[in-house]
Amino acid sequence: MSRIGILGAGAWGLALASVAERAGHEVIVWARNPETAALINETHRLEKRLPGIEFGARLRATSIPSDLSRAEAVLAVVPAQVLRSVLAQFSDLKAPVVLCAKGIEAETGLLMNEVLGQCLADVPGMILSGPSFAADVARGLPTAVTLAAPDLRLAKDWAAALSLPTFRIYPSDDPRGVELGGAVKNVLAIACGIAAGKSLGDSARAALTTRAFAELTRFGKALGGRPETLTGLSGLGDLLLTCSSRQSRNYSFGLALGAGKSTVEALAEAKGTVEGIATARIVAKLAREQNIDMPISAAVAAVIDGGSDPETEIARLLARPVNPEFHRG
Ligand SMILES: NC(=O)C1=CN([C@@H]2O[C@H](COP(=O)(O)OP(=O)(O)OC[C@H]3O[C@@H](n4cnc5c(N)ncnc54)[C@H](O)[C@@H]3O)[C@@H](O)[C@H]2O)C=CC1
Ligand SMILES: O=C(CO)COP(=O)(O)O
């Protein structure tokens, strides 16, 4: 049994906390809000984030960062755009940090592992990512994800320590590839949601998802991910899940945009963090700067920024020249 710290009492932080507890560990969840921590300790639930899920007695919550100082591993499960400011409150951490947010820091273009390196230079980082909705994981439905670290031994040890029969963790030594797939799929899921909101049909969904995968692969490879990682759980696997399910907040956000809602209304309908919004802008910017062909991500960024609308972007994508399906070289 280990002591596991969780940064963030959102849907995913609490789902992972319940996994760690079921795997036999003692779990301490940090919530920024003391009332949230008190509610979890008193009721063993947080209905707002994980309706219908009850936590066990080995899971406690706190709002005091130093309460996590004895953790043997810490899972960072706050949204990508606030990771830096949250880590600043945990400058004493020495244990390995498992990064669970799926996004790229918008201001810097840095991946989560790079943000960790700047904030806590001596702490080993791992990436946990893959097709897994918090509600499914918390209910104990079967899921499979990837845990990546430059040191495969570390990834293997923690994959073994945190796995359950219904939460299978595959170790990997390609953290960059795992991170890039998880971040970019959120942008592409918004596009698939928009297409569904516009009732473009199942054939369009399949075509868009496949072309989205081509985009994710180009971007992932250009930024140093391994091709096989991009075809795995954290790349293709998560893209397939989030491009097809209303359980995804990114997809739901796109669905509402496609149905004619404003970005503010669409965000309210998505109910929770929509990582693809901030990540779309930075993915489109990095793709422009590095000359990576990312038409779908550029379209999503243009719609989100208000510079365009779904109709114009769909027309633009359909009018692209018909080129060979696969880029050579
Ligand atoms: N919900 C899901 O099914 C999954 C989510 N993820 C990823 O996990 C990350 C977190 O998502 P969720 O937990 O689902 O989001 P959520 O919307 O349910 O919760 C976000 C949490 O972050 C906290 N937070 C926001 N700003 C903060 C700040 N400045 N300081 C401290 N805490 C702050 C909020 O209070 C809230 O507890 C995202 O990157 C998401 O892509 C990954 C896999 C599955
Ligand atoms: O990453 C997820 C599933 O793997 C969750 O997707 P959303 O953030 O779009 O809800």
UniProtKB/TrEMBL annotation:
| The protein's name | NAD(P)-dependent glycerol-3-phosphate dehydrogenase
What organism is the protein native to?
Taklimakanibacter albus
